[in-house]
Structure formats: structure tokens, C-alpha cells
Amino acid sequence: MTFVDNVLLGAAAAFVFTSLVALYRIVDGPTMPDRVIAVNVVGSNVVIVIALLAAAIGEPGALDIALVYALLNFLLSIAISKFTVERGGVL
């Protein structure tokens, strides 16, 4: 493994740790907007980790997976926001 691969894997590990911290906010968030933002952060971090791992192992096909996951993460955020507003809550 080269130095660049190690740096990419280290950055991926840092984003995984950030996602674990955000999981606390998902479980113990005091309000619904906190939980929605935390879910969005975790989803974005997953996309970043997939992209970093794809670059580290030299597998460009994984970038397609990251792109699809990013689109699904965006749609999930929109759906949760729409559901919350229709229920009478305000984001």
C-alpha cells in the first residue's frame, strides 16, 4: 500500500468515527430536526467513505454506488421533511 492509500483509508476512518458520533444525535436528539440533520450527516458520510475506499482500492465502479446512495439520501431527507410538515410539525 502506498502512502496515499493509507491517507485515504485514514480519512475514511475519520468519517466513520464522525458518523458514529452523529448516531448519538439520531438516537438521543431532542427534536425532530436534529434527528433529520443527523441522518443526513450519516448518509453523506457514507457516500464520502465509499468514494474514499473506491479511490484507495482502485475500484471506480464503487463510485456509481456512492452516487446512487447520495441520491437516495437526498430523497430520504425530502421525504422526512415532507412527512413532518404534513403532520403539523415545522422543520
In brief:
The chain has 91 residues and is an all-alpha fold. It contains three helices and no strands.
Structure description:
With 91 residues, the chain is mostly helical. The protein has one domain. Helices cover 86% and strands 0% of the residues. The protein has 3 helices and no strands. Helix 1 runs antiparallel to helix 2 and helix 2 runs antiparallel to helix 3. It is elongated. The mean pLDDT is 90.
Mind telling me the C-alpha Rg? 16 Å
- Please report the total strand number as a whole number: 0
* Shape by Cα distribution: elongated
Ranges where pLDDT stays below 50 over 5 or more residues in a row are: none
Treating each run of at least 4 consecutive H or I residues as one helix, how many helices?
Answer: 3
N- and C-termini, Cα separation: 46 Å
Portion in beta strands: under 5%
Structural class: mainly alpha
- Overall domain count: 1
Biggest sheet details: none
In N-to-C order, the SSE pattern is HHH
| Helix content bin | over 70%
Mean pLDDT: 90
Keywords: Cell membrane, Membrane, Transmembrane, Transmembrane helix, Transport
Subcellular location: Cell membrane
GO molecular function: sodium:proton antiporter activity
Main location: membrane
